[in-house]
Amino acid sequence: GENVEQHPSTLSVQEGDSAVIKCTYSDSASNYFPWYKQELGKRPQLIIDIRSNVGEKKDQRIAVTLNKTAKHFSLHITETQPEDSAVYFCAASSNFGNEKLTFGTGTRLTIIP
Amino acid sequence: GAVVSQHPSWVICKSGTSVKIECRSLDFQATTMFWYRQFPKQSLMLMATSNEGSKATYEQGVEKDKFLINHASLTLSTLTVTSAHPEDSSFYICSARGLGGTNEKLFFGSGTQLSVL
């Protein structure tokens, strides 16, 4: 089955700086990669996703890049703000998300004011 | 985005009792719902995939007789933790996948914190 690894497990950045979280996956059949943000005790919220037919996708301060050859994808948050503090999970799925998602282990991001 | 309602948000029960958790898609039909379990500071672990009108598919290591899943309609799936024990204490979250425009995107319920005494 699919195995998704995520690094780092914790990340602290100064407000205004950029944050990067990286994930690798094992199954070459995976072609859908969403990122979720989860605040303490709350539900995961989809913040951005990417399909394997594109290499990069951007939505305001958030971007995701995908390297299919290396089987890794990354989340980039620019101009970080205190409200970006949360746990972020990457995930992978095949059949463009119509199969089950396998989640990474999560990254606790802390933005230092 | 689509809304998934999960109830109850928290429950405390005695060891040996059963607990039912409901997951409803409020504004879309969900042919597939997923049930996850999340321990503190850990990732979401898929327990089972629930398909409307058919038996759920359980992940390896998940006891189907202990975690009963029923997906009787396109908007409701239930997870029943039978004969709960303290080790079943966890945060349980459901998610649902819509059809049409929402296709592959998953929407999560708000989660249920289960504490078994």
Task: Give a structural overview.
The complex is a heterodimer of chains A (113) and B (117). Chain A has 113 residues and is mainly β. In chain A, 0% of the residues lie in helices and 58% in strands. Chain A is built from no helices and eleven strands. In chain A, strand 4 (30-38) and strand 5 form a beta hairpin. In chain B, the strands form two sheets. In chain B, strands 2, 4, 5, 6, 9, 10 and 11 form a seven-stranded mixed β-sheet that branches. In chain B, strands 1-3-8-7 form a four-stranded antiparallel β-sheet, with no helix packed on it. Chain B is built from no helices and eleven strands. In chain B, 0% of the residues lie in helices and 52% in strands. In chain B, strand 5 and strand 6 form a beta hairpin.
Q: In brief, what are we looking at here?
A:
By secondary structure, chain A is mainly β.
List the helices and strands and how they pair.
The complex is a heterodimer of chains A (113) and B (117).
Chain A: E1 4-7, E2 10-14, E3 19-25, E4 30-38, E5 45-51, E6 56-59, E7 62-67, E8 72-77, E9 86-94, E10 102-103, E11 107-112
Parallel strand pairs in A: 2-11
Antiparallel strand pairs in A: 1-3, 3-8, 4-5, 4-9, 6-7, 7-8, 9-10, 9-11
Chain B: E1 4-7, E2 10-13, E3 19-25, E4 32-38, E5 44-51, E6 57-58, E7 67-73, E8 76-81, E9 90-97, E10 106-108, E11 112-116
Parallel strand pairs in B: 2-11
Antiparallel strand pairs in B: 1-3, 3-8, 4-5, 4-9, 5-6, 7-8, 9-10, 9-11
- DSSP strand content of chain B: over 45%
- What's the N-to-C terminus distance of chain B? 37 Å
From N to C, what is the helix and strand string of chain A?
EEEEEEEEEEE
The overall average pLDDT of chain B, rounded, is 89
Helix and strand composition category of chain A: mainly beta
Give me the count of strands of chain A: 11
Strand content of chain A: over 45%
Helical content of chain B, roughly?
A: under 10%
Radius of gyration of chain A: 13 Å
Reading the helices and strands of chain B in chain order gives EEEEEEEEEEE
Shape assignment of chain A: globular
Principal-axes geometry of chain B comes out as globular
Uncertain spans of chain B: none
Hey, which two chains have the biggest interface? A-B, 23 and 23 residues
Contiguous helical run count of chain B: 0
Tell me about the largest β-sheet of chain A.
6 strands, mixed
Which quaternary structure do these chains form? heterodimer
Q: What is the helix content of chain A?
A: under 10%
Tally the helices of chain A. Answer: 0
